[in-house]
Amino acid sequence: MIVGMNHFTVIAEDPKATLDFYTGLLGLRVGHRPDLGFEGAWLYGDAPQAVLHLYFDRPPPAQRAGVIDHMAFTARGLREVKARFDARGTKYELRQQAGAGTWQLFCHDPNGAKVELDFDPSETLQGPLNPP
């Protein structure tokens, strides 16, 4: 019955910082969003479907993650993405998954949402995995 994941929704406490994180750092782009009667944004990757919806009109809950631990995105350009994180001083944890070899970069957005970026095992990395 279910054929795939449609999107995640994040309540953005600071819309500017949230958009900068997802568009400036992660490379998503703001795209078409119908008039839903409240402020927000829809963010897109390479596919024609929005992968992330942002709410700008409501306060975040006290328990930021709730029962959802994290959202994961398939990504490419491990070296470049790591360099962007390092240049901005954005904290992250990078590891290579045992067995499959998938590179996994974990971080938190400005609202406290945990984000995982998964890179193909064939991508290479120079230097240390994580910043000092």
TrEMBL record:
InterPro entries: Glyas_Bleomycin-R_OHBP_Dase (IPR029068), Glyas_Fos-R_dOase_dom (IPR004360), VOC_core (IPR037523). SUPFAM superfamilies: Glyoxalase/Bleomycin resistance protein/Dihydroxybiphenyl dioxygenase. This is VOC family protein. Residues 4-120 form the VOC domain. It holds the Pfam family Glyoxalase. It comes from Variovorax ureilyticus.
